[in-house]
Amino acid sequence: MKIYAHRGASHDFPEMTMVAYENAVKQGADGFECDLRLTKDGVAVLWHDADLKRRANNAAVVHESTYAQLVAIYPQIVTLDQFIDFGITEKKSLLLETKHPVPSRTEIENHVVQKLHKEAKRIEKAGIDITVMSFSWFAVERVKQLDKSIALTYLIRETTPRLSVRYSSAHSIGPGIAQLRKKPALAQQIKSAGKKLNVWTVDEPSDIILCRHLGVDNLITNRPAFAREVLAAN
């Protein structure tokens, strides 16, 4: 089971900043997870929320702001270019989550695929895996349409229609840990369908052990060092 740092080592450092990812390396993460949005001028940045209220106490909306405006508000903001370059340099695999719904629809997927094509040789040389993820069924299918070779994860909630999971082109399914805790049999259902299991966001010892017991492939956690300690002790 691989350990992915959710937005970096975000239990201890500001989420999706370079310091969070640098410390995820120190904490022994196999890879990193991030959220992606496009700025008004077409720059892909690592940002979870639609606006900057929670992280920067500012009402600026990502898709309505230029990259320069966002940097002026929150200097620690990271671009997709910087993130991929860091992953390649550190030889760490990446989970790229595209956020929806957004006014630009699947433009973020187009952007990500273009970037992965541009960096294909460096990614291969580094020997890392890069997976595109989304809660949007259409976003996952858009990436499949653009490039069938890109690994995909369809993130799901308890309210996600079963048919959308069944007919997803994704190579892996990503339920939340609360779903697995409530319905452990879901793990075997996903595995029996020939798909991998990426589970978010797993921070509690009992949940970490449950994931190992259920054969989870990739565990996404805010606490990579702690997850390793729990696994080593059990």
Automatic annotation (TrEMBL):
It comes from the Bacteria. SUPFAM superfamilies: PLC-like phosphodiesterases. Transmembrane segments: none annotated. InterPro entries: GP_PDE_dom (IPR030395), PLC-like_Pdiesterase_TIM-brl (IPR017946). GO terms for biological process: lipid metabolic process. Coiled coil: none annotated. GO terms for molecular function: phosphoric diester hydrolase activity. Residues 1-231 form the GP-PDE domain. This is Glycerophosphoryl diester phosphodiesterase. It comes from Candidatus Planktophila lacus.
